[in-house]
Amino acid sequence: MSSDFESYEQDFAVLTAEITGRIGKVPKLVGDEKKQMVVNVEKQLEEARELLEQMELEVREIPPQSRGMYSSRMRSYKQEMGKLEADFKRSRIAYSDEVRNELLGDDGNSSENQRAHLLDNTERLERSSRRLEAGYQIAVETEQIGQEMLENLSHDREKIQRARERV
């Protein structure tokens, strides 16, 4: 079961990376290219939602003892999906160069380069933040599992001591 979940995780990671790359390209495109890219991203977002649903089904089939770790992963994947959808909305409504030039009446090349650089940096920061959040979640899960193991060992120790006392 967990191998299916892990393969879904890998597919999800690859798909979200592709989506992120394409979302970054959407504001820079114009006309039919932009429309085609938007359609492709929408299809990939739908595919990612379906993968999340499959992953949820796999988590439901996992025994309750080990379900916690997978549930927290699912929460982080859902957050990532929400961020992707929000980024996509922002990129779709971002003004293209032509619209900006018409509105402002200037070429805006340097400001557009700065804007692109800022967007790239923001995207990089968001990816790093998601990785840090995922790492933190794994650390919390590991700590919880360790606590459960210590409790089980403590109970086992008490049982062994009682058995010794009886003998």
From TrEMBL:
Start and end residues of each Vesicle transport v-SNARE N-terminal domain: 1-91
Family (UniProt): Belongs to the VTI1 family.
Subcellular locations according to the entry: Endomembrane system; Golgi apparatus membrane
Region (Disordered): 103-123
Bilayer topology: Single-pass type IV membrane protein; Single-pass membrane protein
Quaternary structure and partners: Interacts with distinct SNARE complexes that contain either STX5 or STX6. Interacts with NAPA and, to a lesser extent, with NAPG. Identified in a complex containing STX6, STX12, VAMP4 and VTI1A.
GO MF term set: SNAP receptor activity; SNARE binding
Cross-referenced Gene3D superfamilies: 1.20.5.110, t-snare proteins (1.20.58.400)
GO biological process per UniProt: Golgi to vacuole transport; intra-Golgi vesicle-mediated transport; intracellular protein transport; macroautophagy; retrograde transport, endosome to Golgi; vesicle fusion with Golgi apparatus
Signal peptide per UniProt: none
Coiled-coil spans in chain: 31-61
Protein name: Vesicle transport through interaction with t-SNAREs homolog 1A
GO cellular component entries: cytosol; endoplasmic reticulum membrane; ER to Golgi transport vesicle membrane; Golgi membrane; late endosome membrane; SNARE complex
Broad class of the protein's primary localization: membrane
